[in-house]
Specification:
This protein is of the alpha/beta class and 360 residues long. It has helices at 18-26, 38-51, 62-73, 87-90, 95-100, 117-123, 153-165, 177-184, 188-191, 218-230, 239-251, 256-271, 299-308, 331-347, and strands at 6-7, 55-59, 79-83, 103-107, 134-140, 169-174, 197-201, 212-216, 276-277, 287-292, 311-312, 314-317, 320-324. The chain has 14 helices and 13 strands. The strands form three sheets. The chain has a seven-stranded mixed sheet with strand order 2-8-7-6-5-3-4, sandwiched between helices. A four-stranded antiparallel sheet has the order 9-10-13-12. The longest helix is centred in the C-terminal third of the chain and has 17 residues, at 331-347. Bound molecules: ligand TLP.
């Protein structure tokens, strides 16, 4: 039997746990478009409660969660302020512009994943017929492209309050808000206090096979539910997958601390290797983004070389690569990964296979 690869491409690669598979086979189901799936209703109730909000809606993905949220907050020609390397801006096909006519207004993302409050304030439009109407501020917590940085409570409060002071709504792409809560040792509800809406993934570090939840007040969730239908996301006996989501929320949040410890171990090991640079102190959650500082070997070479040692991770543009720890990656796997790195860096330019995808 061949050893399975150590898959660090993302936490999205996680497979359902035995408890999830069992829950899925036993879930009572109904037609969720009629609001009659008891398992979906339970999941939505649980998510709303954990985030301290009135209501929730189950959607198929983080992308759909963000899209339904933005479309529920904004009309055609309205403007959304967001970070220039936010997932919504970079990796969601510009869906809110393509499908909803929402105008994105990107501002620089700081290294810690925050947007400067002064930049946000400068970006908010005045009352002038030349301008779109600024309706929404969106932030990402944890921040994927900033290496999984967790935005602290004080920042989340300040950003939300600034939005509200100017009459904007505040949306959080909380695909990995669970990781932020664990890393910062606060409740998800506390981080969400000022948010009008959040989209939270069940199928990343929490290991559910499918799904995200959007939370907010009842009126907003009613609108988001309409948006889910128009993008074709109204699901029927969705309790089969929601059941895994319930296990994700009840059993899989605290263990994220293990993924964070493994990510830190990886960062510390990488930092000791010649030709790799990363500040391990900046690794707070499960994402490790590092630079390859070698002339003779590209990130694509490095990724291909690691693959031949059974380690999967992606280049993400420039000299950078990303590794994401997850439920299936153990401390011993991290040590094996570091050995593979050492071997590939040692072999240097002899590694020639360039068939790699730049993504993540
Ligand atoms: N991120 C994926 C890729 O799309 C890059 C990954 O491997 O990290 N918000 C954030 C912050 C995300 O990182 C992602 C997925 C999403 C939203 C979208 O979630 P899905 O993949 O469920 O649509």
């Amino acid at each position: 039997m061949t050893t399975p690869p150590i898959d660090l491409r993302s936490d999205t690669v996680t497979r359902p746990t035995p408890a999830m598979l069992e829950a899925m086979t036993k879930a009572p189901v109904g037609d969720d478009v009629y609001g009659e799936d008891p398992t979906v209703n339970r999941l939505e109730g649980l998510a709303a409660e954990m985030l301290g909000k009135e209501a929730a809606v189950f959607v198929s993905s983080g992308t759909m969660g963000n899209l339904c949220s933005v479309l529920a907050h904004c009309g055609r020609g309205d403007e959304m302020i967001l970070g220039d390397i936010a997932h919504i801006f970079l990796y969601e096909q510009g869906g809110s512009a393509a499908l909803g006519g929402v105008h994105p207004h990107p501002v620089p993302t700081q290294a810690d994943g925050t947007l400067k409050l002064s930049d946000i304030e400068d970006a908010i439009r005045g009352d002038n017929e030349h301008f779109p109407i600024t309706r929404l501020l969106a932030v990402e917590n944890t921040h994927n492209r900033c290496g999984g940085r967790a935005l602290p409570v004080e920042y989340m409060d300040a950003a939300g309050q600034l939005a509200h002071k100017h009459g904007l709504k505040f949306h959080v792409d909380g695909a990995r808000l669970w990781n932020a809560a664990v890393a910062l040792n606060v409740s998800p509800a506390r981080l969400a206090k000022e948010a009008d809406s959040l989209s939270l993934c069940l199928s990343k570090g929490l290991a559910a096979p499918v799904g995200s939840v959007v939370v907010g007040d009842k009126e907003f969730i009613q609108k988001a539910r309409r948006m889910r239908k128009v993008v074709g996301g109204g699901m029927r006996q969705a309790g089969v997958i929601a059941a895994a989501g319930i296990v994700a929320l009840t059993e899989m949040v605290e263990r994220l601390a293990d993924d964070h410890a493994n990510a830190r171990r990886l960062a510390e090991g990488l930092n000791r290797l010649d030709g790799i640079s990363i500040d391990p102190e900046t690794v707070q959650t499960d994402i490790v983004i590092f630079n390859l500082d070698r002339e003779d070997i590209t990130p694509a070479h490095l990724s291909a070389g690691l693959r031949s040692h059974g380690v999967l991770l992606n280049p993400i543009g420039g000299k950078r690569l990303r590794a994401v720890t997850n439920y299936h990656v153990t401390e011993a796997d991290i040590d094996r990964t570091l050995e593979a790195f050492a071997a590939v860096l040692e072999a240097g330019a002899q590694v020639t296979d360039k068939k790699v995808v730049t993504y993540g």
